[in-house]
Amino acid sequence: MNRNNLIDTIRSFAFILMLYYHLYSLNPKIKYPYPKTIMNIGEISRTTFVLLVGVSIEMFKKEENNLFKKYKKPLLILLCAGLISLTSYYVVPNDKFIFFGVLHFIGLVTLLFKSGLKTIYIIPLIIFSLYMKNYMYSLKATDNYLQIIFGGYVKTLNPLDTFQIFNWLHIVLVGMLIGKVLKKMNIDIKTNKYLDKFNYIGKHSLELYTIHIIIFMIYFYKFNN
């Protein structure tokens, strides 16, 4: 995959914010709601990550006849998502089980939109996504996994990480529109040895995310509980 220093830098910042937020959200000794600053940090990091998913899909899409190469990335993301789910199943209480977190969401949308979308389709999909988000919240609260995955209120479950599809799909789609613009304008920033070191985080965010989530869950729920 081609790289863009600007995208990697933004992703690195978002990862650091997310890491700080997880020191609160994954620690069972810290009760919700968290301080407003922490809540804002979490919201900024999540939104930035999801927005960059759409940006990256459009900026780095390419024709690929080899199916394995074409779908290698989303399948790898889903594999990491599975590892996180498996760990949470055995480590955290049942009500906190991660059955559809951020990597599940990113893997799914990357798989669906791997080849990008024409602009004419993106706007209607944004409208549809926002409509479905409101519709899902009009339904009764539930503990049904499938309904929760799409959106709406959770009844008694309290997963450590839940990324409901229609809560975040419109942000991916907006990111795809931004990605189209950035690709045409060929926007980037110059690299240097310090930026390269910092951007290591953004370039390897999938591996770092998976590792730190698993370590945090094991530490907070097995050794510090």
Note the topology.
Blueprint: H1 5-25, H2 36-59, H3 67-91, H4 102-112, H5 119-138, H6 145-150, H7 165-185, H8 193-203, H9 205-223
Helix pairs in contact: 1-2, 1-8, 1-9, 2-7, 3-4, 3-9, 5-7
Can you tell me about this structure?
It is a single chain. The chain is globular, with a radius of gyration of 18 Å. The model has no long low-confidence stretch (mean pLDDT 95). It has nine helices and no strands. With 225 residues, the chain is an all-alpha fold. The protein has one domain. The chain has helices spanning 5-25, 36-59, 67-91, 102-112, 119-138, 145-150, 165-185, 193-203, 205-223.
DSSP summary, beta strand count: 0
The residue-averaged pLDDT reads: 95
* Portion of residues within helices: over 70%
Low-confidence stretches: none
Tertiary shape:
globular
> What is the end-to-end distance?
41 Å
Describe the structure using short key phrases:
225 residues, mainly alpha
How would you summarize this macromolecular structure in one to three sentences?
This protein is mainly alpha-helical. 70% of the residues lie in helices and 0% in strands.
